[in-house]
TrEMBL record:
<dbReference type="GO" id="GO:0032259">
    <property type="term" value="P:methylation"/>
</dbReference>
<dbReference type="InterPro" id="IPR029063">
    <property type="entry name" value="SAM-dependent_MTases_sf"/>
</dbReference>
<dbReference type="InterPro" id="IPR013216">
    <property type="entry name" value="Methyltransf_11"/>
</dbReference>
<dbReference type="GO" id="GO:0008757">
    <property type="term" value="F:S-adenosylmethionine-dependent methyltransferase activity"/>
</dbReference>
<keyword id="KW-0489">Methyltransferase</keyword>
<dbReference type="Pfam" id="PF08241">
    <property type="entry name" value="Methyltransf_11"/>
</dbReference>
<comment type="similarity">
    <text>Belongs to the methyltransferase superfamily.</text>
</comment>
<keyword id="KW-0808">Transferase</keyword>
<protein>
    <submittedName>
        <fullName>EFMT4 methyltransferase</fullName>
    </submittedName>
</protein>
<feature type="domain" description="Methyltransferase type 11">
    <location>
        <begin position="1"/>
        <end position="107"/>
    </location>
</feature>
<dbReference type="InterPro" id="IPR051419">
    <property type="entry name" value="Lys/N-term_MeTrsfase_sf"/>
</dbReference>
């Protein structure tokens, strides 16, 4: 879910001219398509992350920034995620794995700490390696966020 984030445009401005962004909201996608109409390398599609309409092995990189957090937002105990939320997360991650090319990279940016997120990502079925790093500006009052990098075709 790209939402109304400028990330796709920022990537385009950095030289990544082949960027596809999705969101389940048709109104959001229409607004983003209109806002960035001058950037022909940006593509926008209404899509559900649980059932991606892309062919197998069609992306070198899949990037999500907080989208997966939505699947767990109603969970009351991050140590014990409900079977429904865990299944939704597996379904999305299986779709991401399916659309990644061999050697492709899945990047996830979230506030979710490794002890909560790694159990979802670190599954042999997805066929990827897993690394993570804590990020932040070093300010004692700042929240840290986490960068997870999965590489398709490398051992877990």
């Amino acid at each position: 879910g790209c939402g109304n984030s400028a990330l796709s445009h920022d990537l385009h401005e950095l030289g990544y001219t082949d960027v596809t962004s999705i969101d389940f909201s048709a109104a959001c996608i229409a607004a983003m398509r209109a806002r960035y109409a001058r950037c022909p390398g940006l593509r926008w599609a209404v899509m559900d992350i649980r059932a991606l309409a892309f062919p197998d092995a069609s992306f070198d990189v899949v990037l999500e920034k907080g989208t997966l957090d939505v699947l767990l937002v109603e969970e009351t105990d991050p140590w014990h995620v409900s079977p429904q939320a865990a299944a939704a997360m597996r379904r999305v991650l299986a779709e991401v794995s399916r659309v990644l090319r061999p050697g492709g990279c899945f990047i996830s940016i979230t506030f979710a700490q490794p002890h909560f997120r790694k159990p979802h990502y670190a599954q042999e079925a997805f066929g990827w390696s897993l690394r993570h790093a804590a990020c932040g500006d070093g300010d004692a009052g700042a929240f840290h966020y986490f960068l997870y990098v999965m590489r398709k075709g490398q051992p877990l």
